[in-house]
Specification:
alpha/beta; Rossmann fold; six-stranded mixed beta sheet
């Protein structure tokens, strides 16, 4: 199972747009990045989740044009900049399908660090960049000889925004 973590594309300042929609440049960079990612990697999300903030929603809608999600685009709680990432650590334990999450910093950095079992996030998130993680299962033996599965996340790839 894979998750694709995306920091929303470049957004307007609050002065320019109180709702902070995407800039024209942000949209152009996102589209170039999506085209590049589609050429390089197989990205097949079953669903795309976003925080509901306009910049994340617009980013999710554009990404859906390039990576059509079978189950659609959905606004989800707990993906805002200062939300507790443990909510989504627990949420992802119950999801078995490839999922794209469009969110914000510092949430994405904190979430990624927890999944990768690190004190600090080793990944530098960038607007419109794509970070892919894969969940695997490691079988462990307990003292009573029962077999348990431990879910392990590893970095699969990172695609940087195409700025040219």
């Amino acid at each position: 199972m894979k998750i694709y973590l995306i920091q929303h594309a470049l957004a307007k300042s609050k002065f320019e747009d109180p709702d902070r929609g995407l800039t024209d440049n942000g949209i152009a960079i996102l589209r170039k990045t999506a085209i590049n990612a589609k050429k390089q990697m197989e990205i097949i999300p079953n669903q795309i989740f976003h925080s509901g903030k306009l910049r994340a929603k617009q980013t999710a809608e554009i990404l859906a044009e390039y990576f059509p999600p079978k189950k659609g685009i959905h606004e989800k709680r707990g993906l805002s900049p200062l939300d507790d990432p443990m909510i989504w650590v627990n949420e992802m334990n119950s999801i078995e399908e490839n999922t794209m999450i469009v969110g914000h910093l510092p949430f994405l950095e904190r979430y990624c660090a927890i999944l990768l079992n690190r004190q600090e996030n080793p990944i530098k998130f960038e607007n419109a960049g794509i970070v892919a993680l894969e969940r695997t299962h490691e079988i462990t033996q307990e003292r009573n000889q029962e077999r348990n599965q431990k879910k392990i996340w590893k970095l699969l790839f990172q695609i940087h925004p195409v700025v040219q």
